[in-house]
């Protein structure tokens, strides 16, 4: 799964970790899918542990892509503007560079919204895709590290849950019994991993389109 370097700007002085994260997400998702394709009767306890590791690894890598991509983008925007690719006006480029110290510690998706606002681009409706899918993925990551619950109240005081958001997005883990709890057993399957990869690609491509900048790194068929 080589990385498609298509329209990207080569920055010799900075490692672009988001490229590694998206590669990792693809790799782990494919490994999880391969394990689920085997006869369940032949699955050992070790195989099931590996399957869980691949699925959670996909989610962690996808979340890392979201964060590292926007963090690095704030730093790289001037270089992207000078690349011959679609450029942002000088004023917007300057504002985005100047505001970074103020947003550096903000929530991940807030950084995307700030970038769009400063670039005079359309901000996201946080109640619709692709924003809500990205938010769900990050909440799933938070649940896996115990920093957030799978249920919460939104800004309007309405009760929300990850299960309600995700149960129609992909089928349950093929290796889990139907009576198993939704989190973590039934949600953490290969289908969830593939959804995570699709979610990060869709959101990132949409964000770059709104910003008028080249698409971020993705896994493709071209050689590095």
Number of helices: 8
Share of helix among residues?
55-70%
Mean pLDDT: 85
Query: What is the count of structural domains?
Result: 1
- SS content category: mainly alpha
Walk across the major sheet and give the strand order: 1-4
Could you spell the SSE succession in H and E letters? Answer: EHHHHHEEHHHE
Describe the oligomeric state of these chains in a short phrase. Answer: single chain
Give the overall form.
globular
Give Rg in angstroms. Answer: 19 Å
How many strands, which pairing sense, and closed or not: the largest β-sheet? 2 strands, antiparallel
Explain what this protein looks like in three dimensions:
The chain has one domain. A hairpin with a 5-residue loop joins strand 2 and strand 3. The chain contains eight helices and four strands, in the order βαααααββαααβ. The strands form two sheets. It has a two-stranded antiparallel sheet. The N terminus is likely disordered. By secondary structure, it is mainly α. The relative contact order is 0.20. Helix 2 packs across helix 3, helix 2 runs parallel beside helix 4 and helix 2 packs parallel to helix 8.
What attributes characterize this protein structure?
8 helices; single chain; two-stranded antiparallel ribbon; disordered N terminus; 57% helix; 224 residues; globular; mainly alpha; two-stranded antiparallel sheet; 4% strand
